[in-house]
Design brief:
Elements lengths: L4 H13 L8 H12 L7 E5 L2 E7 L2 H7 L6 E5 L8 H14 L6 E3 L9 E7 L3 H10 L7 E4 L9 H4 L16 E2 L12 E2 L21 H11 L6 H11 E3 L22 E3 L7 H14 L16 E4 L4 E2 L2 E2 L2 H11 L6 E4 L3 E9 L5 E9 L6 E12 L2 H11 L2 E2 L1 H6 L6 E2 L11 E9 L5 H5 L2 H14 L9 E7 L23 E7 L13 E9 L7 E3 L10 E3 L6 H18 L8 E4 L9 H11 L1 E2 L31 E3 L14 H18 L6
Parallel strand pairs: 4-14, 5-6, 5-17, 6-14, 9-10, 17-28, 18-19
Antiparallel strand pairs: 1-2, 2-3, 7-8, 11-21, 12-13, 15-16, 16-17, 20-23, 20-26, 20-27, 21-22, 22-23, 24-25
Helix pairs in contact: 1-4, 3-10, 5-10, 5-17, 8-17, 15-16
């Protein structure tokens, strides 16, 4: 710790106390400091201690927190309530932060005015799941200058993102893009919210943290679809090992028989099993699986290549905290005060990409226009080597079309000059529909007790905050299953199998001890089992397009949920499978019965209506900038992820997936991003592969 910190603190306090003639409130001071110095990751907390109003600034934010083994350094400024926002106070606080963060540290900036240079080797558009992988890996070379432009804010201090139990509480918040679909014909014309992370880490900072790679069939299928063996399971093995590592669950329980350590690697994302006992549900899930066998057979590790069966859920959680792309890839660089060649600009929207024309007439993209809503500021930056779009399945095609890459008639109708006529941009939108079902249980305690009681919630938080133990260390579910449709199903006379292969699923079941998801009103009495049924290999395809040429206007999104009879049939089968599973002997002592419409829907017709009424998005959209073979006239990017018909531009996020993984999207996105880094390095003379 710098020896002169106490002296700086004394100066801060004197500046504050010397400025009483300026009347304001602690909350106003806090708001100002947050707004002005988000670039320094200041977390400003107003408190009352011994009847005095104070501001507490945990500093240096998460960085020193880690380097001091989780002991926070506090700047405590004693300020009477009628204290002043003084320039001297702000400058003193900022000076103190500079003592801890030398200029050589990675720069995290909140204002375009804070960007000191306008030329970089690479500009990464989007600081989400894929974007932070790409940016941090490329900047491992100290001679490579990288800028990340993230539309959302910092992940620092966002408690609902950090605490695993609150995994999806940020959905619908300011840390969510809060997209909405158009009315869905397959869902009785309902519109659905579509969540996407709007902060550093992207959706890895707000998702349920399920870490599922999918089957070996999936990646071999991608290799066949793209004509590139580099996308096969065997070729990608080094990348999924490079991305994550297995860590012990928070409660330290023996995981023998629950996971295969040999299937896991050495990367920065921490993956673990549930760290809070849920035996009343988990034990019955495993026992029922072993009793029923067949389609419900137990699978020790669903991440080992065979993605069919029932097993323990693996989550991107380490030591009781979410392990997002921001936490795993970016935060260590900030805490180590390294990587001066990496700049991260938050609260910044990419409004357009500008081009010049190369000798052969192909547009070459080198300039990125950055914009900020609050200030109205605009700034152009240059990527001398490559622009990498990692804005996600919605943001990436949106930016492509705003920049003149997309269906020419659509672009021209909005006054956008078509540069690359590509009808595939924004098409092939694929998502997995899900339903939530609940059963009343004959048990005496569950997480529902805590959710109904403010005192118990506070105690659970205190336990997590002090020991990283207890209910809050895990997301709400800790077991899941992936099932194939029966081989003798009548549906096969009408449809070909849309899954990647025999080791891939059509259905997912997720079991949760409690009235999930968190945020849903918990009944005043009773204990519940929540089961998600998910169609993981849907045939329905949707699309998105521009609403206008305004870069800040949200696009028109139509996922077309349940417009295929196959998807409706599969959801009905998933519900039947769920009922079969909870009818097994291990459940008979605790299952009282189903809750709501599930209790009355019995025929296929009733179940179909129940599905159309109750299906929602699991937020696993992919495919809007689909990868295809080099020679293909369809698709948006080549197998090396370079945009077809353009130069200097690539896409790295879930929008490039050539087919939907029959799993959750986080791990496949990481795997694609890790390989993308080597592809980008290779074509820019930075790596031989």
């Amino acid at each position: 710790m710098p020896h002169n910190i106490p002296h700086v603190l004394a100066q801060v306090e004197l500046c504050a106390l010397a400025s009483r003639k300026y009347r304001t409130s602690v909350s106003e001071i806090s708001s100002y400091i947050k707004q002005r110095f988000l670039m320094a990751h200041l977390v400003v907390l107003p408190y009352t201690i011994n009847h005095k109003d104070v501001i507490i600034i945990p500093c240096p934010f998460k960085l020193l927190w880690f380097s001091l083994d989780h002991h926070l350094l506090y700047f405590v400024v004693t300020i009477p309530f009628s204290v002043p926002v003084m320039v001297s106070l702000i400058l003193a606080v900022y000076a103190a932060s500079l003592l801890i963060f030398p200029a050589s540290a990675v720069s995290i900036l909140a204002s375009l005015d804070d960007l000191t240079k306008s030329e970089f080797d690479f500009v990464v558009v989007g600081g989400g799941t894929a974007g932070l992988v790409v940016a941090t890996r490329l900047s491992e070379n100290p001679h490579v200058r990288v800028l990340v432009a993230e539309a959302g804010g910092s992940n620092e201090g966002v408690l609902n993102s950090i605490i695993p139990f609150f995994a999806v509480e940020l959905v619908g918040s300011s840390n969510d893009w809060n997209f909405t679909s158009v009315p869905q014909a397959g869902l009785l014309n309902r519109t659905l919210p579509i969540a996407r992370g709007h902060l550093l880490g992207g959706s890895s900072s707000i998702n349920r943290m399920d870490y599922t790679r999918g089957s070996d069939d999936l990646y071999d299928h991608w290799a066949n679809l793209t004509g590139d063996h580099g996308w096969s399971w065997s070729s990608l093995k080094k990348y999924y090992f490079k991305n994550s590592r297995l860590v012990p669950p928070a409660d330290g329980h023996d995981t023998t028989g629950q996971v295969d350590p040999s299937a896991h690697g050495y990367g920065p994302v921490e993956v673990s099993l549930g760290g809070f006992p849920a035996g009343v549900v988990d034990d019955r899930v495993v026992n029922a699986s072993k009793l029923l066998g067949g389609r419900f057979a137990y699978n020790r590790d669903l991440n080992a290549g065979d993605f069919v069966g029932v097993g323990y859920l693996q989550s991107s959680v380490g030591h009781g905290r979410r392990s997002s792309a921001a936490v795993a890839y970016l935060d260590p660089l900030v805490s180590s005060r390294s990587r001066p060649n990496l700049s991260v600009l938050v609260n910044t929207v990419v409004t357009k990409l500008y081009h010049s024309v190369s000798l052969n007439g192909i547009p070459e993209f080198k300039t990125v226009e950055l914009g900020q809503v609050n200030s109205g500021s605009r700034l152009n930056v240059t990527a001398t080597k490559e622009i990498i779009l990692s804005a996600g399945v919605i943001g990436t095609p949106h930016i492509l079309m705003l920049s003149g890459i997309g269906p020419k008639d659509t672009l021209a109708s909005l006054g956008i000059e078509p540069l690359v006529d590509n009808p595939s941009v924004g098409q092939n939108l694929t998502d997995q529909p899900q339903m939530l079902h609940r059963y009343l249980l004959n048990i005496t305690q569950s997480p529902d007790d805590v959710l109904r009681n403010a005192t118990l919630m506070e105690e659970a938080f205190d336990q997590w905050n002090t020991t990283k133990q207890g209910l809050f260390v895990s997301p709400s579910g800790s077991t899941n299953g992936y099932l194939r449709l029966p081989e003798n199903s009548t549906i096969w006379s009408k449809f070909e199998d849309p899954s990647s292969g025999p080791r891939s699923a059509h259905i997912e079941l997720i079991w949760t001890n409690g009235f999930g998801p968190l945020g849903a009103p918990v009944p005043a009495t009773g204990h519940f089992l929540t089961i998600n049924t998910v169609v993981v290999s849907p045939i329905s395809r949707g699309h998105l397009t521009l609403a206008s040429s305004d870069p800040f206007a949200k696009p028109v999104i139509n996922p077309n949920y349940l417009t295929s009879d196959f998807d409706v049939f599969t959801m009905i089968q998933a519900i039947k499978d769920m009922k079969t599973f909870v009818s097994a002997d291990p459940w008979k002592d605790i299952i009282i019965g189903p809750v709501g419409q599930l209790s009355t829907a019995t025929t296929d017709e009733q179940l179909a209506l129940y599905a159309r009424n109750g299906s929602i998005s699991i937020n696993h959209s992919i495919g809007t900038a689909r990868m295809s073979p080099f020679s293909a006239k369809w698709g948006v990017v080549d197998p090396d992820l370079a945009v077809k018909g353009a130069r200097g531009l690539s896409v790295v996020d879930a929008s490039v997936f050539p087919s939907i993984p029959e799993c959750h999207m986080q791990a496949p996105t990481y795997i694609v991003a890790e390989r993308a880094v080597d592809l980008i390095k290779a074509r820019n003379g930075l790596l031989r592969i």
